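Milestone M4 deliverable, item 7.
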Amino acid sequence: MDLMQKLIEAQQYSEVIRSVFVQDYKNLFDEHELTSKQTLVLDVLEKRKLLNMHEIAEIICATPSAASQFVAKLEKKNYVKREINPNNRREILVTADIKAQQFFQQLEQLEKELFEKYYMQLPERDILDYHRVLKKLAEIVTRSTAQNPHIDSRDGQ
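Output delivered:
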């Protein structure tokens, strides 16, 4: 079997794993009544800690007006807070609120449960190899997107 065929098979295995995990994640998202775009914004907000409305508009591929409405819905459900930037009164800054923090605590717990349920059944060597391969692949992809700015890498992570 050639290398390309092995990669195709590996990708198929990844899809099988992802399909199982998606249901667990979907249950959490449904429990919080969050859409995929809302979870995407919350995820970026969790990493960066602070976003402005222009950045949110870029993340959801929308106009600033639509982004404002989008944030208003999250704010109404206590997932985010909006504040005026004290250094630029025309800019609105968005931070995580209490429900976002609760959501990410539950998400972290779910991920730990999935790791324990599935990944920890692997021998230590396989886990280390898995980590090594994914790290190398992430470096290649990151390097590639830095060299090709037309490739969309929303939050640069």
